[in-house]
Design brief:
This protein has about 220 residues and is α/β, with parallel strands linked by helices. The chain contains seven helices and nine strands, in the order E-E-E-H-E-E-H-H-H-E-H-E-H-E-E-H. The strands form two sheets. Strands 5-6-7-3-8-9 form a six-stranded mixed sheet, with helices on both faces. Helix 2 crosses helix 3.
Length: about 220
C-alpha cells in the first residue's frame, strides 16, 4: 500500500429503508492522516454513511473496501456497551475481543485517560460518562481509522478537548453539529443533504463558498 492509497474505499454505497432512500449511491475515499468532517441537516444521511463504513449496516448497493483489512474503531451515536457491566468490565471485555495482551492494563489506562469511574454499572453513568466510555471502547487496540458519529454531543468543553487530543493526528471521519469543530480539527469537509453528497473538499473552500448554504 502506498502512502497516498486510501485506507477505506466506498464505491457506490447506497441504503434504502423500504421506500425511503437514506443515502443515494456515494463514493468516498479515506486516506491516512485525514480528518473528514461529515456535516449536514438532521436526516441527511451522515449516520447511515458512517454505519456502512463501520460495517454495522449493510449497503443496499455498492461496497466498502478496507485496504489490507484495516481495522476501524466505531463510535455510534448511541453507546454500544453492556449496561450491567461496570466501565472497567466493559473495557476489559472489549480489550479481550480486540486481542489486547493485557486487558486489565488497557482498561486501566483508558479509565484514567477519560477520568471514568471503573466500579459503577454502565447503566448508572451520566450521559457524558457513557459517551466517554463509548469512545474509550473504540480506541482499544489503537485502530488505524476512527469513525465517530457526533462523538462530542454529550460532552462539556473540557471533555471535548480531551477527546480531540486523543484522536489528533490519526485518520478520523466524524459527523458533527458543532461547526467550530470543523475549523479546529477537520482537514476535509463532506456535506450531505437529502442523502446526497453536495460538497467534498478542503475546509477553506467550504467556509468560503458553501458554509452558508448547508443549514439554510
Amino acid at each position: 500500500m502506498t502512502a497516498s492509497e486510501p485506507l477505506l474505499r466506498a464505491r457506490g454505497i447506497a441504503r434504502r429503508f423500504g421506500a425511503h432512500v437514506a443515502l443515494e449511491p456515494t463514493d468516498l475515499d479515506v486516506s491516512a492522516g485525514e480528518a473528514i468532517a461529515l456535516i449536514g441537516p438532521n436526516g441527511a444521511g451522515k449516520s447511515t454513511l458512517l454505519s456502512m463504513l463501520a460495517g454495522s449496516l449493510e449497503p443496499s448497493a455498492g461496497a466498502v473496501e478496507r485496504v489490507d483489512g484495516v481495522r476501524v474503531g466505531w463510535v455510534p451515536q448511541r453507546p454500544s456497551l453492556y449496561e450491567r457491566l461496570t466501565a472497567r468490565e466493559n473495557l476489559e471485555l472489549f480489550a479481550r475481543l480486540e486481542g489486547e495482551r493485557d486487558p486489565s492494563a488497557a482498561a486501566g489506562a483508558l479509565l484514567s485517560t477519560f477520568d471514568l469511574p471503573g466500579d459503577r454499572p454502565a447503566a448508572s453513568l451520566s450521559v457524558g460518562n457513557r459517551q466517554r466510555l463509548n469512545v474509550a471502547i473504540a480506541l482499544l487496540g489503537e485502530p488505524p481509522v476512527l469513525l465517530l458519529d457526533e462523538p462530542t454531543a454529550s460532552l462539556d468543553a473540557g471533555q471535548r478537548r480531551r477527546l480531540w487530543e486523543m484522536v489528533k493526528g490519526g485518520t478520523v471521519v466524524f459527523s458533527t453539529q458543532n461547526l467550530e469543530e470543523i475549523g479546529l480539527y477537520a482537514s476535509r469537509v463532506v456535506v450531505l443533504q437529502r442523502g446526497r453528497v453536495t460538497f467534498d473538499g478542503a475546509v477553506d473552500e467550504y467556509e468560503r463558498v458553501h458554509a452558508a448554504e448547508v443549514f439554510a
